[in-house]
Amino acid sequence: MTRRIQTLCLLLVLAIIAAACSGGGADSPATTDEAPAPTEAPATTEAAAPTTEGPTDTTPPATAGGDGDNPLAEYGEDPSAADMALIEEALGPVDPSDPESWDIILAAVARAGQDLDQATIDKALECWSNQQCDTGTGGELVMGYADGGGNDVNVWRSVAHMEAILQALTYPEIGTIISTAANFDADPAVHENDIRFLIQSNVDFIVGYPDMGPLLATVIQEAEAAGIPYISFSAGYVGLPGQEGALTPGEDYTAVVGEDLCALGESFAQTLNEHVGEGKVAMLGGTPGNALSLGWQRCAIAALGDGIELVNPPADENSTTGDTNWYNPIIPDIFRGLLTADPDIRGYAYEYADGVLSGLQAYEELGIPVENLVLALRTDEQSLFCDWVERDEPTYKIFYSAGGTFQSRVGVTAALLHLKGFDIPGEITVPHVMREVTADDCDPDRPNPVVSGTSLVPDGILQAMFGGA
After folding, report:
1. Mind listing the pLDDT tens digit for each residue in 278-292?
2. What domains can be seen in the chain, in order of their start residue?
3. Which of 3, 179, 260, 348 has the fewest CB atoms within 10 Å around its CB?
4. What is this structure's pTM?
């Protein structure tokens, strides 16, 4: 079977899943103000019953023979073993991206579907809580994890960190995990020093998010020059074309995992164009100038319809607007400033759902009703969605793509493939699709309401991370 045939098969499977999920009107919005009973998570993502045995080898079986059925077989991966229900859970009813990217995504998800024994759960929590841990496998590889945020400053970053750790624990060859967190420090030197610390610790590869973008170019090139592949996730480009000092993935550093940012921005604009029609809108972003926000904002602004007025345009095409640092305590002030000047804003585009919930405090303080409002979002934190259910306001609509925390898993798998000699693409494209929020998107029993609904971290581990278990 050729790769093309394999890809067509995967497309057929996804089409069947999408048809099953869209039939019979089951996805229509609820008409009551009560959230339904939480949907039970797929069995493949739940932790297995605790055992007293040590960590097991959770490597998915590779297709034997390397005869073309599986292009990654000789590298220990099997894309065909991916549970398509997990793809649906993490991404929604997407069309596959290019085969080179899609095979790596499927291979990563195949590992995410492994059952976990108690010893592995305990080890994951140990690695998540400490800067350095021994995985217990005796493997020679050292994984570095460099986060511009961190466990203590942002739930999304905390969960993405755990996703990467769980993925690493499926590789017996990874014997040590070393993690750093810059905690959104405004000083680029803090972020640089974290990566330099990993270089000096002789890690074999680095996965992370470069919040400072091109300001980290020098130290990332130092890593690559030392033979340490750097792979970012969540569209963490080390600068975009046109930005001074930007690096090129696949040339200056190993790879970036993430959505097509221009397509994401155009999806946001299409949502606002269609559901706002005419009126004022605002755009929000994360850390100033980060590539994720800049990438989608550039294309969203260009795609806004004639009837849409952007109230906070950026200074130029190489800067972001509505910078929030993805840090909830400062977000109400940003909304307050926008609403004081334009209380009739009818739509927002932003990549952080829970940040909007913080911003809604400004609506309450200023006495502005949350009505005739459209949100075009990337992530899917349950906090905002459950608040939407409680408000039961029919003129208030939310559209979202996916949380994306699982992309750190793809970064780990891509790094291992690269180290084993597979030629990974410089841009590993994660497909996206926009979905409208319904009452089914609120899970009031989530261990932490700020956790993404599309995270692949099992509920038992989330409970231990955030619920004190």
Report:
1. 999 999 999 888 899
2. 3-17+45-58+66-259+405-435 (3.40.50.2300), 261-400 (3.40.50.2300)
3. 3
4. 0.83
